[in-house]
């Protein structure tokens, strides 16, 4: 058996124990081949959302004074830690 075939079999063994979960795009059960998605289409939809900026991480802007206070608090925690 070739090295590539052995790697492929090992990959199947690792993913065979995954429990099917809902696709994060359409909620159908995920497929092993496209995990965690159910299809290539849903994987591509998700990729497009990332690339187009549809997914964002909410950020709270801090004032410079808040940084000073945070540094003081962290300094205290490190000394007591």
UniProtKB/TrEMBL annotation:
One biological-process term from Gene Ontology?
regulation of DNA-templated transcription
Note accompanying the cofactor annotation: Binds 1 zinc ion.
Q: Give the UniProt keywords, A-Z.
A: Metal-binding, Zinc
The cofactor required is: Zn(2+)
For the keyword Lipid metabolism, the answer is: no
| Alphabetical list of SUPFAM superfamilies matching this protein | Glucocorticoid receptor-like (DNA-binding domain)
Matching InterPro entries, A to Z?
DNA_gyrase_inhibitor_YacG (IPR005584), Znf_NHR/GATA (IPR013088)
Q: Which Gene3D superfamilies match?
A: Erythroid Transcription Factor GATA-1, subunit A
Q: Which GO terms describe its molecular function?
A: DNA topoisomerase type II (double strand cut, ATP-hydrolyzing) inhibitor activity; zinc ion binding
Annotated positions binding Zn(2+): 23, 26, 38, 42
Answer whether the UniProt record assigns the keyword Metal-binding to this protein: yes
What sections of the sequence does the record tag as coiled-coil?
Answer: none
Question: Per its UniProt entry, which superkingdom is the organism in?
Answer: Bacteria
Q: Which family does it belong to?
A: Belongs to the DNA gyrase inhibitor YacG family.
| Function recorded in the entry | Inhibits all the catalytic activities of DNA gyrase by preventing its interaction with DNA. Acts by binding directly to the C-terminal domain of GyrB, which probably disrupts DNA binding by the gyrase.
Per UniProt, subunit arrangement is:
Interacts with GyrB.
For this protein, the record's HAMAP family field holds: DNA_gyrase_inhibitor_YacG (MF_00649)
Q: What is this protein called?
A: DNA gyrase inhibitor YacG
Q: Which species does this protein come from?
A: Stappia albiluteola
Gene that encodes it: yacG
């Amino acid at each position: 058996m070739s090295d590539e075939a052995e790697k492929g079999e090992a990959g199947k063994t690792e993913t065979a124990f995954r429990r099917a979960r809902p696709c994060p795009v359409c909620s159908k059960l995920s497929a092993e081949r496209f995990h965690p998605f159910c299809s290539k289409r849903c994987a591509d939809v998700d990729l497009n959302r990332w690339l187009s900026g549809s997914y964002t991480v909410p950020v709270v802007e801090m004032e410079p004074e808040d940084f000073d206070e945070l540094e003081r608090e962290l300094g205290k925690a490190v000394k007591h830690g």
